[in-house]
Amino acid sequence: MRTTLDLPDPLFKHLKTRAAQEGRSLRDLVIELVEKGLTVRETVNVQKRFYARPVVGASATMPSSAETLTNAKLFELINRDDDERAGHILQSR
């Protein structure tokens, strides 16, 4: 079914960046994220999502000092951390 959504500009840019990094379409990424969101039963406090927290999980590595930390790389690290957290929530059920 075709629909139209009005997304805030920062969210849209985030989605486009992630889709480009993963080499897939925005449509496929949004579908996957919506499906994942529907499977998570724990309610997330929106305010807590934006509290200061480590950007990377224990298994992730920070870029070397010679590598520039771009917005795209930062989004990638945040998304990897979010994916790890969601995985832990789903495994604990």
Description:
With about 90 residues, the protein is mainly alpha-helical. The chain has one domain. The chain has four helices and no strands.
Secondary-structure element order, N to C:
HHHH
* Gyration radius, rounded: 15 Å
Main sheet record: none
Structural class: mainly alpha
Proportion of residues in β-strands: under 5%
Measured as a percent range, the helix fraction is: 55-70%
Number of structural domains: 1
| Average pLDDT reading | 76
DSSP strand count: 0
Question: Would you identify the regions where 5 or more consecutive residues have pLDDT less than 50?
Answer: none
**Principal-axis shape:** globular
Note the total helix count. Answer: 4
How far is the first residue's CA from the last residue's CA?
32 Å
In short:
The chain has 4 helices and no strands. The chain has 93 residues and is mostly helical.
